[in-house]
Design a protein that fits this description.
Bound molecules: ligand C2E, calcium ion
Distance between the termini: 83 Å
CATH topology of the largest domain: TIM Barrel
Strand content: 15-25%
Number of strands: 16
Strand order of the largest sheet: 8-9-10-11-12-13-14-15
């Protein structure tokens, strides 16, 4: 093998950083040294975000230019003895020989400060956030491959917790194994179409009339809640298939109801990956055409925290949906730390107050003030307010008193299967 073959085989072509092979060799070497000198070493797995979204929104040329600048910045902050590496498209790692707990945390802190500055790509400022996972030899892992896996699992945990840095814990290896199993089963369930949908009524508080249905995915066959499988779908990219399945199935159901003379507006949850995908609108419009649902009222629900994670890109995507006539609902409002500056730019038609502020409202004066303030704010911006998690009549009465527009919750109706809904509608709402 010539020298140049060697260089290509050990270094990433685009960024010039060490590749996975070279990193693994270096880790193995450093582990040998650490064993001999009873020292420790650390690996930081670095996931910059929202890289894939930038790629799909702005194109691969911009993505590549950003990767190169990212690598340059990484090189400029580390010591000579450290090895920065590119593992895959948007995953990086940093090997720190002779590093201990505190030293590694300091490096992470330094990195996150350095990456607060925007990147300049062709005159446009792009911001990247970091999720970093740390694993340390010999505390957490005994081999090069364990160290790499541990750091990656820790970085995923950081992402899930919306924290910048997370240190590997033994229990995470088990959790990662369970998620992998769930991923395989969920993929099969989506392909075979064995998930189900439920629809939860939303009523106008003043009139008591049905004004919408929230579409909620169910995995009845496995008795696994969406609170468990949706995060796995989001973390693995399966959410795109799940969302497509959910959209088509709920639009098919809407067509059946329409044929029976009912127009029930649908609110559909999408995750931020779907929102930033260029195909979302065309997918929905294809099924709207196929099921002859032109003009059918549809609302896209997206959580406040996911909008804020990618504020500028997400706001643009929401604007495009709004232009096409979709309603936009900001879900779990109050838990996602939006700044008021963003609120004024949000092309939303409604705010959905998180159930943690609604359930038990009667005994919580602080939450009552909060709900009143959100109602005033939303109305000021021309948005409606939906309260979710309404479980008692006292809550509904207070919401009415505070001027909240729409209510959803077990007190009104739990999520129902499609074929149960007409029965509920006939007995409850129309009289
Ligand atoms: P979410 O969007 O906030 O949905 C409302 C959740 O509150 C649902 O839980 C619903 O069953 C539950 N709920 C309704 N009324 C009450 C009540 O009065 N009290 C209480 N305590 N809870 C109530 P579910 O169905 O378990 O869904 C959990 C989350 O999973 C959803 O939260 C949503 O974020 C996600 N999800 C569900 N289906 C989908 C989907 O198809 N796509 C995506 N992206 N996310 C989904
Ligand atoms: Ca929702
Ligand atoms: Ca919610």
């Amino acid at each position: 093998m010539t020298d140049s073959d060697n260089t290509v085989a050990l270094y990433d072509r685009l960024t010039g950083l060490a590749n996975r092979t070279l990193l693994e060799e270096r880790i193995a070497h450093e582990i040998d040294l650490a064993k001999r000198h009873t020292t420790s070493l650390a690996l930081i797995h670095i996931d910059p975000f929202p890289f894939s979204e930038i790629n799909s929104a702005l194109g691969f040329a911009v993505g590549d230019a950003l990767l190169v600048q990212f690598a340059e910045r990484l090189k400029s902050v580390v010591r000579k003895v450290d090895t920065p590496a590119r593992l895959t498209g948007d995953e990086f790692a940093l090997l720190l020989p002779e590093a201990e707990h505190e030293g590694v945390l300091n490096v992470c802190h330094k990195l996150s400060r350095w990456f607060e500055e925007p990147f300049d790509i062709g005159g446009e400022s792009l911001f990247l956030g970091l999720n970093m996972g740390i694993s340390i030899f010999p505390m957490h892992c005994a081999s090069a491959s364990d160290l790499m896996r541990g750091a990656m699992v820790a970085a995923n945990e950081a992402k899930k917790r919306k924290e910048t840095t997370f240190i590997f814990q033994g229990s995470m290896a088990r959790q990662a194994g369970e998620n992998l199993k769930l991923f395989g089963e969920l993929r099969r369930a989506i392909r075979k179409g064995t998930l189900n949908l439920n629809y939860q009524p939303q009523v106008n508080i003043e009139s008591g009339k049905l004004v919408g249905l929230e579409v909620l995915s169910r995995w009845q066959e496995m008795h696994i809640s969406p609170g468990r499988f949706i995060p796995v779908a989001e973390a693995t990219g399966l959410i795109r298939d799940l969302t497509r399945w959910m959209l088509e199935k709920s639009l098919a159901q809407a067509a059946e109801w329409k044929a029976a003379g009912h127009i029930f507006p649908l609110s559909m949850n999408v995750s931020v990956r779907d929102l930033l995908s260029p195909n979302l609108i065309s997918d929905i419009e294809r099924w709207v055409d196929a099921y002859e649902l032109e003009g059918y009222p549809l609302v896209i629900e997206v959580t406040e925290s996911s909008v804020m994670e990618h504020a500028r890109l997400a706001i643009k995507a929401l604007g495009r949906l709004r232009q096409r006539g979709f309603g936009i609902s900001i879900d779990d409002f109050g838990t996602g730390y939006s700044s008021l500056a963003y609120l004024k730019d949000l092309p939303a038609s409604e705010l959905k107050i998180d159930q943690s502020f609604v359930t038990g409202l009667a005994g919580q004066p602080g939450n009552q003030k909060l709900v009143k303030a959100v109602v005033a704010l939303a109305h000021e911006f021309g948005m409606k307010v939906v309260a979710e998690g309404v479980e008692r009549v006292e809550e509904l009465e207070l919401l009415h008193q505070f001027g909240c527009d729409i209510a959803q919750g077990y007190y009104i109706c739990e999520p129902l299967a499609g074929d149960e809904l007409l029965g509920w509608h006939q007995t409850t709402v129309s009289d």
